[in-house]
Design a protein that fits this description.
elongated; about 50% helix; alpha+beta; 7-stranded mixed beta sheet
Amino acid sequence: MADNVPEKEADRTVSQKNDPESSQDKGSMESANTNNTEVVFNKNVSILTNKPLHHLDKGKIKAFAAVGRNKLSNDLFAMMCDKSMTPRRTASIKYSKVTNSSLVKLVGSGKVYWPPEKSEKFFFIFENTLGKPIISRNEKYPASNWRAEDVMVNIAYPIISVLKNMRDKDLVHSQIWPGNMFYNGMAGAEKISLGECLTVPSASLLPTLYEPIERALANPESRGPGSFADDMYSFGVSLAVILRTSDPMAGMSDEKIIEHKIEKGSYATLLGKERLSGAMLELLRGLLYDDPEQRWTLEDLESWMDGRRLSPKQSPKRVKATRPIIFGGKKYTRPELLAKDAHKHVDEMARLVETGELSQWIDRAIEDKLIKVRLEQVMKDISSYDRTDGYNARLTAAISVALYTECPVYYRSLKFLPAGFGKAFTSAYVQKKEMQDYIDVLRYTFIMPSIRMRKNTGATSQPARFDNARSFINQTTLSSGLERCLYFLDPECPCLSPILENFYVQTPEELLPALDSICENSRPRILFDRHIVSFLSVKDRRNVDPYMRDLTSSEPYRRMLGQIRTLATIQKRSRLDKFQSLAGWIADNLEEVYARFHDAKKRDSIKSHINKIQKTGDLTQIAYIFDDPKLFQGDVGSFYQAMQEYQKLEIEKNQIEDLLKNKKNYGQHSGQQVASVISMILSFVIMVLAAYFIIIKG
């Protein structure tokens, strides 16, 4: 709703401790200063709307100068997040506990009303100890030609210390590259600091060169959370780029660089014929192993720093066919490259499968029994596929995984790792992209081989998550469908209901203040839609699922009661403040409920009672009135008795009307009876009088 403007900007503040964890859990909500150039955050921070820091921008993520008060530094910067790139809110708790001068320090996080856009935005606040980045963010693949000694002292050692601290907190950085490394403080400083990693999904802004091959093949927003091994690789690439004197792959596209990594290995691709000292050579070879199981760990790095020489590890050689297969007009001798390009010609791949040409190539030209076994398994799975629209694309996606188990899932426009699907799903939805490809992925089962065959599936929960999402997408109930999949697959996604367009609602507790603000400034037609119901059910089903039958009822009064009970439950369970505007909206929209009462006096009494309660903003009291089983039962009982009395009177009325139809004879029978009685009485009187006179005279 375009006119849903949050509460009064100058007056509205919510107190909260200056603690990232507190901000994460409760959701800070502050107001704009009256001078329109500052936004107050957490009472102790002012974000300067007129002082952007462009050198810290990350695409859609904009940086602004900020000023701290009390015990906070007066030199801060604020990063404004975007709904299409879900920030790592839960990771901020671990991040705040990392204490290292070579990592930019987190001061707080939460949402704030942002006057320039008249809506709530989510911010991270950091200490501004960063100078300029050591390379321009636009210069993704440079050759910086630093001296090895300077690299070790000013870059390698500080970054290694940060990685050790992050490992101890079980936190992956996922944004390690020279564009996110900054001179420490003033220009000319030697040591560098590592920038933040919270404002966007893991690795979504990391240039392709700095990702291991398998992750580099996926779309940036679809790479998933990553691992410590991925951070080791990014660190190694960063060192290579900073050290090298020239770029052997200059002018090549990302795709060509990836192909070269597959053919020659990452070390040769990045450094070519570059000559390095023995110690540095050993370090880079250890960090740039393409096999994550062979890649150096932090323990290996520590041993190397202590001066111990490590035995070189032998990376397994990639399989190469003895003869090529022709596909898309090109010759392929490596299964990985064929898997990478298979989605470009899905009809041709379907032909290779159906004619048996692909199987023959695997049998006769590739000496790898595992690939053959995987292909046979996938062929069995394919036999159960529906040959509906998109069959060739689904078949090709499954075949690609059989050829190269660690590659992303390729399906039409999508290239994603299973663990990164949720973030990509959110990004596409917020940007209003075509969603059919995402829906197909959830509706069909062709993704399952990709999950089962991976060396590291990201825990065994992935198959179950996609199975659950499939059941949601195939249902049409109020709490299912595409909306539920959004919040189920991306737990950090804020509620994307159009009703909450100008709000950043992350929890059920934040929903009520947002709705109260909406009702304060307007009178919306509805307060619940599919998004809000799905969001509540995923976040905490106890708030809404008990009332789902009411919310989905065809009777308007039951739907209204379902909303009241849901809101009251959230208010009671979370011990929230009163919401007068929300209570007022409820009081103004009870006509359907009032219409259920037959007793006018009772209806007027309830209405008067609710009008008094609404001033207190206590939704639980409103819900309590309608939760009293005697309320409706007593009204129905009295109504039933009145109906019986009415029916008796109606019968008597009909009898009289039947008698009145014949006016000529109406009352004749009764008159005759009365006349007879009167005659008998008169006769009796005459007889008594006659007897009396006879006796007297006689």
